[in-house]
Amino acid sequence: MAEKGGRCFLVGAGPGDLGLVTLRAKACIEQAEVIVYDYLCNPETLRWAPDDAELIFAGKKAGAHTMTQEEINALLVEKTRAGKNVVRLKGGDPFLFGRGGEEAQALAAAGLSFEIVPGVSSAIAGPAYAGIPVTHRGKNSHVTFFTGHEDPEKSGSAIDFGAMAKLGGTQVMLMGVERIEAIAREIMANGMRKDLPVALIRWATTGRQETLVGTLENIAERVTAAGFAAPAIAVFGDVVTLREELNWFEDRPLSGKRIVVTRTRTQAGVLTEQLRGLGADVIELPTIRIEPPTDLRAFAELVQDAHAYDWIVFTSVNGVNAFFDLFYKLYDDAREIGGARIAAIGPATAQRIKDFRMHVDLQPDEFVAESLAREFGKQGGVENLRVLIARAEKARDLLPRQLSALGAIVDEGFAYRTVPETRDDIGARRRLLEEGADLITFTSSSTVENFLALGLPWPAQMQVASIGPITSKTARDHGLEVAIEARRHDIPGLVETIRKFFSAR
């Protein structure tokens, strides 16, 4: 019988690709009060955690442990015994060379409740993303997994390399890339042929993935020449030759390109997903955060009187969300919006309006305020019509001025404000400083201004991609050179322009 207390979940975070995290793992993270995580976990999984969750980095990087295994075991016992919902987040699978068994034993010995949540292991996913099936009917019928990092306290190796040589098939080694020369030499000494194909896969399943191919005889030399370093797995066997035919992940349009996304945390996902789908290594570095307006009561009063307007104009998805969040707190019937017609700038804004089962009456072809004003002119004008514009605080006042000049009676509803993002729980700024980037994307003037306000050194060779002319002007006003400007001023348009830019090069 377990003692009274919390519950500890030993969770496999998968090999790195966020899409390979299990639904159960995500649910555990979302409900966690304490998360103890490792170096190899994708830090973006931490964004699923509650804002008040305690995040503890346990390190466990080769040669640089923030905490010893004994300290981690004691920490899990302490937090679980205190009644907390604890998640021990481990890269890959907790029981495949992950020392999850030792942690489970410590919890069991303390009489505490725990659960094992298996994860997708890099031992399988890494080769798959490198175009290498670990088993193949025409090549082999079995696979062996072994570690290149054995317990240093053991008097000798428990790995029978002679038996592995006789067994043949595919061997997959987790960890130990820094010992590849000694391991390859030992394998050859035990009878495995020198020309056996070998592949090393670094940062498997992520945008940083690199694969190095050689043979048992020359792989160590190639590792040294390429500066190939951990974290990496190694695949030994004839299945490695299938990579020439099956390499799908590293041959996409943006493979090898590191791109910075500066949108808000809640909005970054769409842009990130599309860039990653094309092979980019994305660093999400939000520079702004959306917050309620300074005078929420004033905006609520305008929303309450929405039925009194002839037109309601939305210039962004954030404005739509803020408006309808308040509207449905005030009313429980969409018909309370009365006869007001709705205008939207941009397809994303229009789609968000449609998500609320509202019809968009006016949407200009170009996604800027100037085009909307011209479109109103084509529709017969707005003279003496009441217009409510739901917009951000401190946004450009061009649209209200132009509509007023056309004779409209304009009210500006400040639906939200953008403020600088100060949190960096996943270490994005450190990654940018250490690794640099090929491109940074700006989707609004505020993302430009707030990124520059961070005062980060500008990485060498990093170019600027802008979503449209207004954002580009802001960037140029701050001394930046804009290499890419989307012809269609929305996220799909920006992604397509980036794809063409790198394809042309």
Mind explaining what this structure looks like?
The chain is built from 18 helices and 20 strands. The protein is an alpha/beta fold. It folds into 4 domains: 7-120, Tetrapyrrole methylase, N-terminal domain (Cobalt-precorrin-4 Transmethylase, domain 1), CATH 3.40.1010; 124-246, Tetrapyrrole methylase, C-terminal domain (Methyltransferase, Cobalt-precorrin-4 Transmethylase, Domain 2); 258-287 and 421-504, Rossmann fold (3-Layer(aba) Sandwich), CATH 3.40.50.10090; 291-420, Rossmann fold, CATH 3.40.50. The strands form 4 sheets. A 5-stranded parallel sheet has the order 3-2-4-1-5, sandwiched between helices. It has a 5-stranded mixed sheet with strand order 6-7-10-8-9, with helices on both faces. Helix 9 (268-277) links the parallel strand 11 (258-261) and strand 12 (281-284).
Q: Please report the distance between the alpha carbons of the first and last residues.
A: 65 Å
Q: What is the name of the CATH architecture of the largest domain?
A: 3-Layer(aba) Sandwich
Q: Globular, elongated, flat, extended or rod-shaped: what is the shape? A: elongated
CATH top level assignment of the largest domain? Alpha Beta
Q: What's the main sheet like?
A: 5 strands, parallel
Sheet with most strands: strand arrangement: 3-2-4-1-5
CATH topology of the largest domain: Rossmann fold
Q: Compute the CA-based radius of gyration.
A: 28 Å
Low-confidence segments, given as residue ranges, are 152-156
Mean pLDDT: 91
Structural class designation? alpha/beta
Q: Count the E strands.
A: 20
Q: How large a portion of the residues is in β-strands, by DSSP E?
A: 15-25%
Helical fraction equals 25-40%
